[in-house]
Specification:
By secondary structure, this protein is an all-beta fold. It is built from no helices and 20 strands. It has 2 domains: 94 residues, Immunoglobulin-like; 153 residues, Galactose-binding domain-like (Jelly Rolls, Sandwich). It is 0% helix and 53% strand. Strands 10, 12, 13, 15, 18 and 20 form a 6-stranded antiparallel β-sheet that branches. The chain has a 5-stranded mixed β-sheet with strand order 2-9-8-4-6, with no helix packed on it. Bound molecules: calcium ion (CA) (2 copies). This is Thermolysin. InterPro entries: Galactose-bd-like_sf (IPR008979).
């Protein structure tokens, strides 16, 4: 089973078509019923004809409504015959619709532990020496006083068509360093969708920025509108004198 094309872009209210071709693997051709799932709100898919005999093709039309949110969606098209079920994916990109606003990160205050986050060992916890800003959990990078690197990441899909995209977080920096030199650093980075490449380092903090208490910081993510990105906090310590970077209530806000 194959879709041609396998992706399409549509402006809200419009429709996009693709041809589904089936092949007869072996034996007698059977009737295949076609369904689609994973469609965004207000969108529907129709097949003409709605079921085919193996070896035939069907035209799929995805129709959106004015309320369909902007974004990229993986629409799963499934063909089911009495003997077998097979699924192919159609990538649907919707633009020109309303902004799907809101907070986009999972478990922003760490109160569900490590849910939604990927972190190095010991970062997410219920620290008493580096207490949370809210609740009983936070993330605590570094604080070892020896060469050490900790990271904290979460992927996020930024929709298109919104006015404001920000990364907001509360940061507390505690250090045993007295130097005016930046020996221990925390970088706030944007990585590509699979986290294999750094797209930008938005901000770098160090022991020099140490202060008592949490402070809220805001960084602009507007350049990444419409993209799947990974947010990474990367803390690196040198060989002596510990610095702790405590983070809590990390949010990505779109409006
Ligand atoms: Ca918390
Ligand atoms: Ca140090």
């Amino acid at each position: 089973m194959k879709l041609s094309p396998s992706s399409g872009a549509v402006t809200v209210g419009g429709s996009v078509t693709s041809t589904l071709n089936t092949t007869l693997a072996k034996g007698t051709a059977q009737d295949i019923a076609l369904t689609a799932s994973g469609l965004p709100n207000g969108a529907r898919a129709t097949f003409s004809p709605a079921s085919v005999t193996a070896g035939d093709s069907s035209a799929m039309t995805i129709t959106t409504s004015p309320t369909t949110p902007n974004g990229t969606y993986a629409v799963r098209v499934t063909g089911t015959s009495p003997a077998i079920s097979h699924t192919v994916t159609f990538t649907l990109t919707v633009s020109g619709g309303p902004c799907p606003d809101g907070q986009k990160l999972v478990n922003p205050g760490f109160e569900a532990g490590s849910t939604g986050w990927t972190a190095t060992s010991g970062v997410i916890g219920q620290s008493t020496t580096q207490p949370p800003r809210s609740g009983t959990w936070n993330a605590h990078l570094d604080g070892y006083g020896k060469e050490h690197t900790d990271s904290l990441t979460q992927g996020v899909s930024l929709p298109q068509g919104c006015n404001s995209y920000t990364l907001d977080y509360w940061l507390r920096i505690d250090t045993a360093e007295s130097s005016v030199n930046a020996w221990d650093t925390l970088k706030v980075q944007v990585l590509n969708s699979d986290g294999s490449r750094v797209l930008d380092t938005l901000k770098t903090y160090s022991n020099v920025n140490a202060a008592s208490g949490y402070f809220q910081r805001t960084l602009d993510l507007a350049p990444y509108a419409g993209q799947d990105i990974v947010i990474r906090f990367l803390g690196t310590e040198d060989f002596a004198l510990k610095t702790s970077f405590a983070l809590d209530d990390i949010t990505v806000n779109v409006s």
